[in-house]
Amino acid sequence: MSRKKDNPIQYKKAPRIKNKTVRIGAADYLFITCTFLSIEGEEVAGLCDSIGKRVYVNQTSKVSDVETLIHEMAHAAFYEYGVIQHQAWCRHLEEVVVEVVSKIVAANFRLTLKK
C-alpha cells in the first residue's frame, strides 16, 4: 500500500503491470494500474492527480479500465489546457463532459489496455 505523509490517496499497484507514460498537452502523466485505490478512505475507480501528473485506474472497479482511463485523461486535459475552474458549477460541468466523452469513446471503439 502506497501513501505519503499528508496524502489522501492510497493505492496498491497491480503486480506485473508496467506503468506507462501518457502525453497530455505539454505534460507527461504516469498511468498507474492499481488493485486498490482510495481517496480519503473512499474506494474509487480512477483518479487524475494533476499536481503529481499521475492517472490511477483501479482495475478491480466495476467500471471498465478503458472507460476509466479515458475519463481521467479527460480531467487531465481540462487541467493542462487551462479549462479547469474552481467554482462548483464548473467542476460539475467538467464531470459531466468527461463522463459523456468516456462513454462515447468506450461505446464506439473496441479499445483494450495492454498488460
Description:
The protein contains 2 helices and 6 strands. By secondary structure, it is of the alpha+beta class. β5 and β6 (54-58) form a beta hairpin. Strands 1, 2, 3, 4, 5 and 6 form a 6-stranded mixed beta sheet that branches. It has helices at 65-80, 88-108, and strands spanning 9-13, 20-24, 27-39, 42-43, 46-49, 54-58. α1 (65-80) packs across α2.
Write the layout of secondary structure elements.
Blueprint: E1 9-13, E2 20-24, E3 27-39, E4 42-43, E5 46-49, E6 54-58, H1 65-80, H2 88-108
Parallel strand pairs: 3-6
Antiparallel strand pairs: 1-3, 2-3, 3-4, 5-6
Helix pairs in contact: 1-2
Class derived from helix and strand content: alpha+beta
pLDDT averaged residue by residue: 85
Which radius of gyration do the C-alpha atoms yield? 14 Å
Query: What form results from the Cα inertia axes?
Result: globular
Number of helices: 2
Q: Please indicate the percent range of residues in DSSP E strands (runs of 2 or more).
A: 25-35%
Oligomeric status of the shown chains?
A: single chain
Span between N and C termini?
21 Å
Largest β sheet strand count, sense and barrel closure? 6 strands, mixed
Helix content class: 25-40%
As for the number of domains, it is 1
Topology as a string of helices (H) and strands (E): EEEEEEHH
How would you sum up this structure in a few lines?
It contains 2 helices and 6 strands, in the order E-E-E-E-E-E-H-H. By secondary structure, the protein is of the alpha+beta class.
